[in-house]
Specification:
Layout: H1 13-33, H2 48-61, H3 64-95, H4 97-112, H5 119-126, H6 130-154, H7 158-166, H8 171-205, H9 213-222, H10 226-254, H11 256-261, H12 267-290
Helix pairs in contact: 2-10, 3-4, 3-6, 3-8, 3-9, 4-6, 5-6, 6-8, 7-8, 8-10, 8-12, 9-10
C-alpha cells in the first residue's frame, strides 16, 4: 500500500485503465442520486435519461453538428488571426529587448484581466454581428499565445544562434531559426488555446447569435428546458475534447521526436530541431565550399 504514495512512481496499466471508469462511474452515480435529494432548486436538475433524450433531440431537431461546426469556425478564424499576429510579434519581442520592454507593460496586465469586462467595449466597437464575436475570441486568445511564444523563443539556446552566425546566417535567417526551434513547443500550446476559445465562444454566442453551441444552450435556458441545457453542455465538452484530440494527433505526426524524447516543456525538442537544422546548414556550406 505504501507504493501508492511514492512521489512520481509510475502506475500499473490496470490502474490507468480502471481509474477513469471509477471516476466517471462515481460522477454518474451522484448525478442519478442528486435529483432524489430534497433541496433548493434541485427540481431544476435534470435526470440522466431526460438528458439522453434531449441529446438525441439536439441531434435530430436542432442541427447539433451544424451548431458545433459554426462554433468551431468562429474559434478557427480567431485562432488564425491570433497566430498570424502573436507568433511573429513574440519572436521579435524575444529577439529585440527594446521591443519587449515597449509591448510587455501592456501585454502582461491584459493576461490577468477578466475578458468578460471587455464585452461591452467590443459591442460598442464592432456591433453585435460576427465581427464582434471573432474580435472578442481573438482578444481572449492573443495575449496568452503571445506570452507562450516569447517564453519558448527565450528558451532557445544562444549557442544555436552563435553557430548560425558563425555559418554566415543573416538576421532574417536567425529569426527563421528561432521560429523553427521554438515552434514545436508553441504548437503544443495550441491545445490550451483551443480550450480557451471554446470557453469564450459560449459567452460570445449568447448575444445575437442564430447558430452555435452557445446560442443552442441559451435558447434552451430561456424556455427552462434544462434537459436540453445539460445535453448542450455535454455536447460542448465532447466537441472540445475531439478537437483537442485531433490537435494531439497532429502534433504527434508533425513532431514525433517530442514524444520519443519524453519532453513536456518543449525546450528539448526545440533544441533538437534547431540542432538538426544547423547540422544540415553546416553540411550544405561544407559541400558548397568544396565545390
Amino acid at each position: 500500500m505504501t507504493n501508492w504514495f511514492i512521489i512520481r512512481k509510475e502506475v500499473q496499466p490496470w490502474v490507468r485503465w480502471a481509474s477513469p471508469l471509477i471516476t466517471w462511474g462515481a460522477i454518474i452515480l451522484l448525478w442519478i442520486l442528486v435529483p432524489y435529494w430534497q433541496g433548493p432548486h434541485v427540481s431544476l436538475f435534470p435526470r440522466p435519461m431526460g438528458v439522453i433524450r434531449a441529446f438525441s433531440m439536439l441531434w435530430t431537431d436542432y442541427n447539433l453538428l451544424g451548431n458545433v461546426f459554426m462554433s468551431w469556425w468562429r474559434i478557427a478564424q480567431a485562432f488564425f488571426w491570433c497566430a498570424v499576429v502573436a507568433i511573429p510579434l513574440g519572436i521579435l519581442m524575444s529577439s529585440y529587448r527594446w521591443l519587449f520592454e515597449l509591448i510587455n507593460p501592456v501585454a502582461a496586465p491584459m493576461r490577468a484581466m477578466p475578458l468578460t469586462a471587455f464585452l461591452p467595449a467590443f459591442i460598442a466597437l464592432f456591433g453585435i454581428d460576427e465581427t464582434e464575436k471573432i474580435a472578442f475570441l481573438w482578444f481572449g486568445m492573443f495575449f496568452y499565445l503571445l506570452a507562450v511564444v516569447v517564453e519558448e523563443v527565450n528558451r532557445v539556446d544562444n549557442a544555436l544562434l552563435e553557430t548560425a552566425y558563425t555559418l554566415g546566417a543573416s538576421q532574417r535567417q536567425a529569426l527563421w531559426l528561432l521560429f523553427r526551434a521554438s515552434f514545436p513547443a508553441v504548437f503544443s500550446s495550441f491545445r490550451i488555446l483551443y480550450d480557451i476559445g471554446w470557453t469564450y465562444v459560449i459567452l460570445a454566442e449568447m448575444l445575437n447569435a442564430r447558430k452555435g453551441v452557445g446560442y443552442m444552450v441559451e435558447a434552451a435556458r430561456k424556455v427552462l428546458d434544462f434537459d436540453r441545457v445539460y445535453a448542450g453542455i455535454i455536447a460542448i465538452g465532447i466537441a472540445a475534447f475531439l478537437f483537442r484530440f485531433l490537435l494531439t494527433l497532429l502534433e504527434g505526426w508533425l513532431f514525433p521526436w517530442r514524444k520519443a524524447a519524453g519532453t513536456f516543456s518543449g525546450s528539448g525538442a526545440a533544441v533538437a530541431s534547431a540542432t538538426t537544422h544547423l547540422k544540415a546548414t553546416k553540411h550544405a556550406a561544407a559541400q558548397k565550399s568544396e565545390a
